[in-house]
Amino acid sequence: MKSDSAPAGGARSGDATSGPPLAIVIEKYADMGVVIHTHRLHGDETVVVHAEDILDVMNFLRKDDRLNFDMMMDLTAVDYLDNQNLNPYLAEMNARFEVVYHLYSIGKNHRIRVKAPLAEDNLFINSITGIWGGADWFEREAFDMYGIVFRGHPNLKRILLYEKFEGHPLRKDYPKTKRQPLIGPRN
Amino acid sequence: MITLPDLVETVVKIAFILGLTIGFYAPIIGWIERKQSAVMQDRIGGNRAAILGFTVIGLFHSLADAIKLIFKEDFVPRGAETALHRLAPVISVVPALIAFAVIPFGGTYNLWGHETRLVIADLDVGVLYVFAIASLATYGVVIAGWASNNNWSLLGALRAAAQMFSYEVAMGLTIIGLVMFYQSLSLVEIVDKQENFYHWGIIWHFPAFILFLTCAIAENKRIPFDTPEAESELVAGYFTEYSGMKFIMFWTAEFLEIVTISALCVTLFFGGHQIPFVTVSGLIDFLGFLGPNGANAAAMLIGVAVFIIKLTLLIMLQMSIRWTLPRFRYDQVMKLGWKMILPASLIWIFLVGAGILTGVMPAV
Amino acid sequence: MTDAKKDYDFHKESHTERMVINMGPSHPATHGTVKFLVTLDGETIEDIDVEIGYLHRAFEKECENQQWSGVFPYTDRLDYTASVLNNIGYALAVEKLIGLKTPERCDYIRTIIGEMARMSGHYTNLGAGALELGALSAFIYFVEARELVWDLLESVCGARLTHNYVRIGGLISELPDGFGLGVAKAFKKNRELWSDFDKLLTKNRIFLDRMRDVGGISAEKAIEWGFTGPCLRACGVPFDVRKAEPYLIYDQLDFEIPLGSTGDNFDRYLVRMEEINQSMRIVEQCLEKMPEGPINVDDPNWRQPSKDESSKKIESLIFHFKAVIEGQKVPAGEVYQPIEGANGEVGFYVVSNGGGKPYKCRCRPPSFALTSAMPQLVTGSMLADLIPTFDMINLIGGECDR
To answer: Residue C137 and residue B40: Cβ atoms within 8 Å?
Structure first.
């Protein structure tokens, strides 16, 4: 057992060479048509990318020495059914869903949010389980709750709900009071 | 040729032992277990069961338990081997009871011209008899596990079979030194030879006592050796599928084995009914003012009381062990048995042999 | 069989078969919240499939149909062994979205209550871990310690388990009189109980054998699988949100984050044990340094006026009415706020569309990530090793299944 009393926020300001992660991502993908939108609302650095480029972007974020996002903190999705105006690019792309990734770098102590909009008729996105094994269950949950299909996922099936559940409950058009058919015991 | 007084004497003794074990200790141990664990854990313990407002410091809980379990559904799982499923609890209880036949719970007293020896059967090979009987208990457990048609039961039975078998071997060896020391396999003789306090087993065989108690607890499958019934791993192990009276029988078997273990320890290491520095004849002489029969009867009562006190103290020792330690893993139990206790007891046999040869240990 | 030697299969030839057992959800060790489908070769785990979801209560769906302040009771029921921490996480996320700065005293009280909740969570975890290894007495000692902490929490907010104590922009009540004294008294007893527990287990050979070198994971793997909290720190990775991205007043406090080295169950146990001590230190420092002042923001848009005021003043009544009927209108936007929960990083990702209800309220559950790595931790070890590993992973059903 050793004890570490790192100074408060010791690593978090980051060394001068690394710079904020968002700037590096913008610099890397300048004029490549990958990045749709970036913002820094409330200090959360956010980059919105095309769903088909997600693996490329994630690989870059994971492997680049200046970024080194070694931890996939969270993965979820948002359904902007009647609220596409919340994010201006959603209406343009006619996208209903957004897959949201939160990444964190333990060494560099910085975070980034990556978002990938998805249209309702094309709910496919590449799985990032190859980069972070821990994304496994998170992707299953997003599939379970929103019906987003993660291509290349080793075991994409429902996780919190049961196999015979109908629909995807966190979609905004799933009524809160909806009933599910009863499934009896199997034997 | 059995005479009538002999027959009466034996029946009385058997009745006494049955009363002591099933009638007294089985419920009392349930109570001791509740109350002692409560004391150790800074709790109050069961104190609600009451008859007419009297709780008798929680004693009625054992009674309530028994009544509750008697009226529970007698459940036999689908696909179980019904006959064996019924038989298994009986097979577990009986060995724990009949082991008592050779354990002396008092000395020899002359009552109204009839020489009374307080042991049901004074076998020359009492020690061997106890081990032989103890190994029968394995059958009850294995049959229970197999007949239940349940994976947890089966796993528990397998663990129990391996564990009980291993520890029987070790347990037998831990006693060899003692047998060499007393030069007898008869438990009565061993107790008689402990009349001299300086010849008590615990004084000359303390390491053997530790080893024996460890093996005995492992044989009884209680924490820290309760892997066959580990509730967090195997639900309840071999008796997962038992309810009601059949469950009580396993429960009783476990409690009776606690008594048997304690009785064996008292007999082998703590001088049985003997009081330190007081001989039986000395006690009878001291009580001479009660007349010959009265003195003998009073000495008998004192001897039995001493035996029961020692027994209870050892039961409480076992309880403290059970409520202090966490549980071993199955392979660690086996490792302890075969790789540590077995060699240790062999070394102890050697040391005792050397001690007897060189005269370090007194001849008794 | 064409080539006998090549096709020889020991298990087939000897007519043995793997045993497949359903461990849970009705099993003493799985607390009704998880099912392990274990394939056993003898006593060795060959394959394990973890199924969760038995405690799914649609946390997110319920939140989306609640007003912003109505979400707090739901957050209580995430990690119910340390419920205030979830309250704080959600409140901080919403306050970040609004841009609200809470008074200093409020931050101090939140820190105190949050650390007590962390203690309660660790007591529960360590005690239950001991219990499932058969050490019932140790369990009872920590239950007693937890009761003492709960008594304090009860004196603050009236509830013992689900405290529902924090509000957007403040707290429901001020600390009661004599709270500091109560803490001093309770912590004295807690330290005694801690040392009793420590004596019973930490150097106990049986306990060591069960915990050491069991359920270990390397630091790299742990990071890849999203481990946070005590389980990550047991691997020697000094990541603690309280230090890395201080929130509330953690940057002004003096405390240490204990680190393990091997990442096995025993290190997880030690890290948690030491964190209890550090939490007590934090609470004592906070009580010492705590300033006087208000506990709520002085802005009726966010912190509702008191009942007394709203029945006397018309302005207050209007605010009260609007807050209750329409809900507080949190500005549109999205925010992610991490805090250090008892199990690891609890993150709230909150999206608002400017309405009175959260548009999306996602909780990043630490034990979800930890549990997903279970197969890696236990495959190849004995069936009995599943128990301490599962305990030290500390799956809290409410948090994992939400």
So the answer is: yes
Per-residue pLDDT, A14: 38
Q: Do B329 and C384 touch (CB under 8 A)?
A: yes
Could you tell me the domains of chain A?
2-151 (3.30.460.80)
* Whether residue C296 sits in one domain with residue C207: yes
Note whether C288 and C158 are same-domain residues.
Answer: yes
Alpha-carbon distance of B187 to B128, in angstroms, equals: 10
Chains that touch B (3 or more CB pairs under 8 A): C
Name residues 218-237 of chain C within 8 A of A (Cβ).
221, 223-228, 236-237
The mean pLDDT of C341-349, rounded to a whole number, is: 90
Cβ separation of C19 and B332 shorter than 8 Å?
A: no
Q: Which residue in the set C238, C250, C349 is minimally distant from A100, CB to CB? A: C349
**A60-95, pLDDT tens digit by residue?**
888 888 888 888 989 999 988 888 788 878 888 888
Nearest CA in chain A to C271: A1
With contact defined as beta carbons under 8 Å apart, do A84 and A91 qualify? yes
Query: Residue C2 above 60 pLDDT?
Result: no
> What are the counts of helices (DSSP H) followed by strands (DSSP E) for chain C?
18, 9
- CA–CA separation, B116 vs B106, rounded Å? 10
pLDDT at residue B114 tops 80: no
Q: Same domain for C203 and C239?
A: yes
Check if the beta carbon of residue C149 is closer than 8 Å to that of residue C342. Answer: no
Q: In this predicted structure, what is the pLDDT of residue A4?
A: 40
C59, C11: one domain: no
Q: How many domains does chain C divide into?
A: 2
Cβ contact, residue pair C135, B326, below 8 Å? yes
Look up residue B134 and give its two tokens.
């103890």
Question: Is C250 in the same domain as C131?
Answer: yes
pTM for this structure?
A: 0.86
Instruction: Count A/C contacts: CB-CB distance under 8 Å.
Output: 137
Residue C74 sits in the same domain as residue C30: no
Interface mutation vs chain C, best among A87, A97, A106, A109, most C CBs within 10 Å: A106
Query: Is ipTM strictly over 0.95?
Result: no
Q: What's the domain range around C283?
A: 52-400
Per the CB < 8 Å rule, is B325 touching C206? yes
> Which pair of tokens denotes residue C237?
């990775």
The answer for residues whose C-beta is within 8 angstroms of residue B334's C-beta and 6 or more apart is B162, B163, B166
Q: Is B287 on the interface with C (CB under 8 A)?
A: no
Q: Which two tokens stand for residue C234?
A: 């047991």
Please answer whether residues B161 and B142 qualify as being in contact, where contact means their C-beta atoms are separated by less than 8 angstroms. Answer: yes
In the predicted structure, residue A18 carries a pLDDT above the cut 80 = no
pLDDT higher than threshold 80 for residue B363: no
